[in-house]
Design brief:
Elements lengths: L34 H16 L7 H21 L6 H16 L1 H11 L7 H7 L11 H12 L3 H4 E4 L5 E2 L3 E8 L4 E7 L3 H19 L11 H12 L5 H17 L5 E2 L3 E6 L3 E5 L4 E2 L3 H6 L4 H19 L1 E3 L7 E3 L5 E3 L5 E3 L2 H14 L4 H11 L8 H8 L13 H17 L6 H20 L5 H23 L12 H7 L12 H21 L1
Parallel strand pairs: 5-11
Antiparallel strand pairs: 1-3, 2-3, 3-4, 4-7, 6-7, 8-10, 9-12, 10-11
Helix pairs in contact: 1-9, 2-3, 2-8, 3-4, 3-5, 4-5, 8-9, 12-13, 12-17, 13-14, 16-20
Length: 532
């Protein structure tokens, strides 16, 4: 193959780079055959893996229960009931997950992205797991590649770097050059990881129900629900053909919506198997390298906005979105576009859930609380028979809620405890798609601190709402059963009420003010723990 010099024809079907090392022709990709059936089988496997077995796999189960049991026992003896109780158990669980290896490190990484769904101490500890996976030896990597491609390594690559670019829990990534001259990235699955994941899921499924109510870090994502979420998330990652298909689908969505500020690498036409994925190599600035971006003339605020709009358009209009945004999975290209990487976790919404997300965002902008709860119910966050009007009344959602920064430590903690208790009483949970969506929004929230710290959050929300009204207003209205001639306006007062902002904030809320509010709440929570 040789690089394409004229505008690549596959730009008509996908948001790819302009310098194509090869052309993507979906109907000619042999590795795509049978993927619909494969995806259906994988989807059906996840609930089965999350079902508690009568007897767990003994060897792995003993190791897991021993490691987690020791962590819980030490916490119970040394830290339970102290001001550092939640921090202590979070630290001990993180160390246990490190010892248990790849599957548990992956679980910890998923939890680390659950800010707002899991306790702050647990999220902070499990963030340390993001860079804790040792690389496989080059000999084992070579073996997997040769087994999958049925060729000696040298028959496919003129160069294959011994040291990986990155090593994650399921796979690691190596830089390489094909014998035809193209610079590529090769994602290689860890040996025996598929069997280990299934053993670990069986052990977790058996253990999950027995952990309910026993540790103070479960929050709304209770252990059985977390196991179910984990199973749904990880089993699809074990077949790289599905990941390559995710790449094509998201690239197609971006092209269809006309979003050309985000680029997806091309998967190779032939070198994609269950355990090996060869793709186009892209390069650029780390998302935290603000100085480098600015020296290159990149507008970081515009970069952030385009990334958010691309994410929302995919989810709300097409039901497909990248499910694992973080600093290692995207970077800024020198021309100001964003490159997306690692499509192992991809959110896919059926029509009911897509419309539920659409309602959640639209009615969240005008303060319609009952419609927001109905959308959450349709996403699976509440049981189908939940009396939503009772939820509104019970939680006081039809009343003006106090600004949490003006509440005492005891009052704030009491309200959070009571809120959690009531939500659990209604059967609330964190479904996979909602958690992936929230996790991505939390990443983009954090990226704002780096890329655009002076951003007016309220003004930006109004801008994005106006963008969707201008480009898709009639389409959204029809899909939600609204009158297309009547606009659903952005209600600034309702949004401020959702943030629980007092009148002193006026019509603006900078990101610096958001951080200040969070810090006040964090200190109040710490103050309450010290008093216990």
């Amino acid at each position: 193959m040789t690089a394409i010099t004229s505008p690549p024809p596959d730009l008509a079907i996908g948001a790819f780079s302009d310098a194509a090392p090869w052309i993507v022709e979906p109907d000619e990709l042999r590795w795509r055959r049978g993927l619909d059936a494969l995806r259906a089988r994988v989807g059906a496997e996840a609930p089965r893996l999350a079902t508690p077995p009568r007897i767990p796999p003994i060897g792995r189960f003993l190791r897991v229960t021993s490691s987690v049991g020791v962590a819980l026992a030490l916490w119970y003896v040394r830290e339970r009931g102290t001001p550092g109780s939640r921090a202590g158990i979070s630290r001990r669980l993180r160390r246990s997950f490190e010892q248990l290896g790849s599957t548990y490190i992956k679980l910890g990484q998923i939890i680390s992205g659950g800010e707002g769904l899991f306790p702050e101490e647990l999220v902070a500890e499990f963030k340390l797991l993001r860079d804790q996976v040792p690389a496989e030896s080059f000999e084992r990597v070579r073996q997997v590649v040769e087994e999958e491609l049925h060729l000696p390594l040298e028959a496919v690559f003129s160069r294959f770097d011994d040291i990986p670019i990155a090593a994650a829990s399921i796979a690691q990534v190596h830089g390489a050059t094909l014998i035809t001259g193209e610079e590529v990235v090769v994602k290689v699955q860890r040996p025996r990881i598929a069997a280990l994941v299934r053993q670990d899921l069986a052990a977790l499924a058996w253990l999950g129900p027995r952990m309910v109510g026993r540790i103070p870090v479960a929050a709304l994502a209770n252990p059985p629900a977390l196991v179910e979420l984990f199973a749904e998330t990880i089993v699809e990652e074990l077949d790289f053909r599905l990941e390559a298909e995710n790449m094509l689908d998201i690239a197609a969505v971006l092209a269809h919506t006309g979003v050309r500020n985000t680029v997806v690498p091309r998967p190779h036409p032939r070198l994609v198997t269950r355990r090996v994925l060869v793709m186009e190599r892209l390069s650029g600035f780390n998302f935290e390298d603000v100085e480098g971006m600015k020296r290159a003339g990149i507008d970081t605020g515009a970069l952030l906005r385009s990334s958010l709009i691309a994410f929302l358009e995919g989810a709300l209009l097409h039901g497909v979105f990248h499910g694992d945004l973080h600093g290692g999975n995207l970077f800024a290209m020198p021309d100001g576009r964003t490159a997306l990487l690692d499509f192992g976790i991809t959110g896919r919404l059926d029509e009911v859930k897509r419309l539920a997300f659409l309602r959640l965002l639209v009615f969240g902008s005008n303060g319609d609380v009952l419609s927001q709860l109905a959308a959450l119910r349709d996403l699976g966050a509440f049981p189908p028979d939940t009396d939503l009007e009772a939820v509104v009344a019970d939680l006081g959602l039809d009343e003006a809620l106090p600004d949490p920064t003006q509440m005492s430590a005891d009052a704030l903690t009491g309200e959070l405890r009571e809120l959690t208790k009531k939500l659990l009483g209604y059967g609330a949970r964190a479904p996979k798609e909602l958690m992936l969506f929230v996790k991505n929004m939390m990443f983009l929230d954090g990226a704002t601190a780096t890329l655009a710290p002076d951003l007016d959050i309220l003004g930006e929300m109004a801008h994005i709402y106006a963008y969707f009204q201008q480009h898709y207003g009639e389409q959204i209205a029809v899909q939600l059963g609204l009158d297309p001639t009547e606009r659903v306006d952005f209600d600034l007062d309702a949004v401020k009420a959702g943030f629980r902002l007092g009148p002193e904030y006026g019509d603006t809320l900078t990101y610096a003010q958001v951080k200040e509010r969070r810090e006040i709440i964090r200190k109040r929570m710490q103050e309450h723990q010290r008093k216990r």
